[in-house]
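worker-03 picked up job from queue 'complexes'. Input manifest follows; two sequence lines, order preserved.
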Amino acid sequence: MSTRYAQTVAADLAALFAARGAGIVEVPVIQPADPFLDMAGEDLRRRIFLTESETGETLCLRPEFTIPVCLDHIATRASTPRRYAYFGEVFRQRREGGNGFFQAGIEDLGDGDIARADARSLADAHALLSLLLPETRLAVLLGDQAVFEAVLAALGLPRGWRMRLARAFGSSEQLSAALADLAAPAPAGALAEPAASLVAAGDADGLAAHVARKMAQGGLSPTAGRMPQEIARRLIERAELRSVRLSPEAFAALERFLAIDVPLGRAAAELEAFARDARLSLGGALDRFAARAEAILADGLDAADIRYDAAFGRPLDYYTGIVFEISAPGAERPLVGGGRYDRLLTLLGAKEPIPGVGFSVWLDRVEQMADTAR
Amino acid sequence: MSITIALPSKGRLKEQALEIFARAGLAVALPDDERTYRARVEGRADIEIAFLSASEIANEIGLGTVDLGVTGEDLLREKLADWETKAEIVAGLGFGRADVVVAVPESWLDVDTMADLDDVAAEFRLRHGRRLRIATKYWRLTQQFFSGLHGIQVYRIVESLGATEGAPAAGSADVIVDITTTGSTLCANHLKILADGVILRSQACLAASRKARPAGDAAIIEELRRSIAGAATG
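worker-03 finished. Artifact:
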């Protein structure tokens, strides 16, 4: 986007951040690359600008703000709760078009009142967009990783299956592949003796000892990577999983759940009806969902413009709760992406769990919308 | 009208390439001085031969600085982004066969398939405080196979420029992606190939650079394709 537009909106954004109690944080443009690659995966490597320091450290131009803001929070041992605002350029490799993009957003760290913090994050994002695009009718799409995981748990699926499905959440392709696999698992490779008998007997200790001997033969350290007990446990778990099939009832319930796509005002009731019909107890997840929906609607956003899509999620393992996008009619891609990432700070090295929720606005896309509107 | 063909500059690959060219009626007149990297084909003023390393050949085909080249399919796919837009395999040559595979320690009795590895990778960070590490020199093929085909996102690649199969025992990686012909090196290092872990069955191939060229040059390339493909299957 043009630096001119950035300058035009800078004062407005600063005023909005101040009014909403978020202090601006400065983040260096050049960042260590490892945290981004660790969190998002190797695939990101193709899309960021990497370089190396003279001493061999892998560095990159910041591809986003959330991770650097969280790292900064951990490094300065700042007290919580705390709200960080940012505004600046991020860099991604693209085949076409520019490589620099302006982003603005707020990361809200350490607020234990999840429903309130979620609602406020969404309201902040909405307010920021409304400020920049006063005439535009914005549409909010909302999903919830925690509700999906609660459904999996309530269906009584074994842990291994729950993990696999939860990982695929948000990608319809991967989710159908995982479901197909669970409905008709691939036949197991034959296990050699004595492992086969030990698995059949459920003898975890004997199995671990056997694996430990094999690791020693292969010259593998029993502690540097996967450990004998871990392999033994998974071997037994895998044998159990292969003996069960995803029942047609469970499959149908999952399908019905994933098809839920309603205005937020009706979402809690819809989930309740689903749980009742499928005879599932979603427990706390449903209460938390309802509390959050209420908090969001109490913030004065137009209920008709907020949709809950049960299948909407992001396949990244640090997202734990709400995920949302805000888009505008005619925009090809969302103007805002946000979500709750309660696992992120511990993954980045925080000593204690710190809940977090935040959003990021793609200002380039907003500028395009503003241009079209003019 | 003339075209440049790049051939491997050393080893078995060079010998086998020269053999197949000879069978196709293209006798490469080697220079008297072995250190020279240019040669001609007897009776063919329209063909120039350049001897290069196999991985350079892949790069040069991608850049379009040579018209044809003999190199491994694995190198074409690894060295060139969107290789299909830059190069075209005009004939498989039937030698230099090797598979690019995913191999894990034999002691990982619970891992036979990519789906198993996906499970392991997903929980790795939680259990060990770091991501699963893959040693390889095949960055691109590994990313395409893991992230693109199998939807596995959470792993880290550790660059390995030699003796990749030793990485798990050395503790520098957990699993490897490497090239193997008979599997005996993997076996000697107590590694096993996953059932669906063959990323690519590679062989030496004659590849053409995709670029605009005069009709005369294109005709030479078509003629060479026929004769070399014939020699490869005959």
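worker-03 released lock.
The interface with chain B takes residues 37-38, 40-43, 45-46, 160, 163-164, 167-168, 171, 173-174, 177, 181, 186, 188-189, 191, 195, 211, 214-215, 217-221, 224-226, 228, 230-231, 234-235, 238, 315-317, 347 of chain A (CB under 8 Å).
The mean pLDDT of chain A is 91.
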